[in-house]
């Protein structure tokens, strides 16, 4: 079982820092990295690993969202609208996880991670022009939707406006994302970001920022359930959170200026390898 | 497009709520580890308090959203935020 000595503390804090950077740059909460790290490298039981991961996701989300909201990058209205189905799904997912065996959760996690890595690779290869925003043009005599927004993008040096569409299917998928969050200890951003980007028409950076904004709620909903079931290891959660928080703050600046698609491609291969390892652990 | 003042104030309120929760929990984490080094039994309680503070930070943020959207008279969004807050409360009780 896990022993928190100085070496472990330093190593975990450093890994948490690295995961925090990845999480904020890729628009995910880091759970896809934290759970395999704890399970495969430290031998932490998967339910406890999920609980720690969810706490870290709350921390990441809160830290990154605090900056992105102030910068106008996160669309709070869209975030609130999607938080309702996401939180509901998260509660159901967490309750389901407490009734499932560890091996089954390993298997589900490996399938999810493989799908995420493939999706991330394909998305990164897609032309940047496809992920660009559609400039908002108000129709004569008409107004935009309540969730429409804009943000200043320093990589292009201009304001990018966008309209939000397809909220009904997006809400349905967000419910599913919340369910995965509670079940597997991920933020759900790996689903939320593509949903907002491809389905709702939100530019990638705004989608990543809004995803970071709302996954904190879904993770928090699950954290309460895992806390009450006694799955949380406070020492482990605290050291991971410390590392992830500092990494998240550093990653915010990278997201704001970098082109994330190249980073996605780089890490998709690594994540696929981890998925295979998790799959093998299930049997 | 320039953000109007109320939007900026709203963003600042949310930012401060989130940062308050994060820094408060960090404080308890560091305090907990200091007590852990001294072998004090209070360490576990301090670390758990830090985790709890972190867990309720999104709830505090959503509460501010309810307040903010009521002030801007976007009642449909205030209702959505209140629904989220209710779900968080349910998750803490079940």
Q: How would you describe what is shown here?
A:
The complex is a heterodimer of chains A (283) and B (94). With 283 residues, chain A is mainly alpha-helical. Chain A has helices at residues 6-26, 31-42, 46-71, 76-97, 102-125, 128-131, 167-184, 189-199, 204-228, 234-257, 260-281, and strands at residues 149-153, 158-162. Chain A has one domain. Chain A has eleven helices and two strands, in the order H-H-H-H-H-H-E-E-H-H-H-H-H. A two-stranded antiparallel sheet of chain A has the order 1-2. In chain A, a hairpin with a 4-residue loop joins strand 1 and strand 2. In chain A, helix 4 crosses helix 7 (167-184) and helix 8 (189-199) packs antiparallel against helix 9 (204-228). Chain A is globular and about 55 Å long. The two termini of chain A are 21 Å apart. Chain B is mainly α. Chain B has one domain (8-93). In chain B, 87% of the residues lie in helices and 0% in strands. The model of chain B has no long low-confidence stretch (mean pLDDT 91). The chains are: A mainly alpha (283), B mainly alpha (94).
Topology:
The complex is a heterodimer of chains A (283) and B (94).
Chain A: H1 6-26, H2 31-42, H3 46-71, H4 76-97, H5 102-125, H6 128-131, E1 149-153, E2 158-162, H7 167-184, H8 189-199, H9 204-228, H10 234-257, H11 260-281
Antiparallel strand pairs in A: 1-2
Chain B: H1 5-37, H2 42-71, H3 75-93
Supply the key terms.
heterodimer; A: 283 residues; mainly alpha; two-stranded antiparallel sheet; 11 helices; 74% helix; globular; B: 94 residues; 3 helices
Helix-strand sequence of chain B: HHH
The biggest sheet of chain B amounts to: none
Which shape of chain A, going by the Cα principal axes? globular
Measured as a percent range, the helix fraction of chain B is over 70%
Structural class of chain B: mainly alpha
Q: Could you tell me the number of beta strands of chain A?
A: 2
Report the radius of gyration of chain A as a whole number of Å: 18 Å
Kindly report how far apart the N and C termini of chain B lie. Answer: 45 Å
| Tally of contiguous helical segments of chain A | 11
What proportion of the residues of chain A form beta strands (DSSP E)?
under 5%
Question: So what's the oligomer here?
Answer: heterodimer
Cα-atom radius of gyration of chain B = 17 Å
Cα-to-Cα separation, first versus last residue of chain A: 21 Å
How many discrete domains of chain B? Answer: 1
Q: Could you give the order of the helices and strands of chain A?
A: HHHHHHEEHHHHH
Largest sheet of chain A: 2 strands, antiparallel
The helix content of chain A is: over 70%
Hey, which two chains have the biggest interface?
A: A-B, 50 and 49 residues
Poorly predicted sequence stretches spanning 5 or more consecutive residues of chain A: 131-143
